[in-house]
Amino acid sequence: MTSPPRADDAHPYLRAATAGIRHHTRAQERSIPPGQVGRPHLDVLHAHLTALHRLLDQIAETARPPHPAAGRQLATAHARLWQAATAVHDAFHLLPATGIPGASECDPERLPEGPPVLTICQRQLTAGHAIRRKTTPTDLNTPLHAHTTACAR
């Protein structure tokens, strides 16, 4: 019979991703002057958010049947993470495009020209389809402060 992994051995990929984000944050504090955030940086951040969005969706689905209250809280976090990804996507399009004519628009009727614009818009559309299958428009438009956590009760 195998024993469960120790806490420091559990989920090594998530631990590595978290360490990478912490390292990047510290490195950015020292190397990037204020106002120098560009579209490629937001594209990578959006990729992290949407990957986390998919993972949180899977975890919420697994937790919901045996633990309904925890599942609801995770579903709320899932919706808020989608809101964060949407805000990063919107910020991406508000930053000036360097050398890409017409790249500041995100038009579902016309595909943008190449990466990173094409990839960020595709990820956003995919995340939008996933969240809309499980969430009401009212839930998606509810401000963050309208929900309480178990600790606040």
Structure write-up:
The protein has helices at 12-31, 39-63, 68-94, 117-134, 137-141. Helix content is 62%, strand content 0%. The model is unreliable at 147-153 (pLDDT under 50). Helix 2 (39-63) packs parallel to helix 4 and helix 3 (68-94) packs antiparallel against helix 4. It is flat and about 50 Å long. It is mainly alpha-helical and 153 residues long.
Measured by DSSP, the beta-strand proportion falls in under 5%
| Broad shape | flat
Number of strands: 0
End-to-end Cα distance, whole Å, is 40 Å
Kindly state the percentage of residues in helix.
Answer: 55-70%
Which terms would index this structure?
5 helices, 153 residues
Give the topology:
Elements: H1 12-31, H2 39-63, H3 68-94, H4 117-134, H5 137-141
Helix pairs in contact: 2-3, 2-4, 3-4
Summary, kept brief:
62% of the residues lie in helices and 0% in strands.
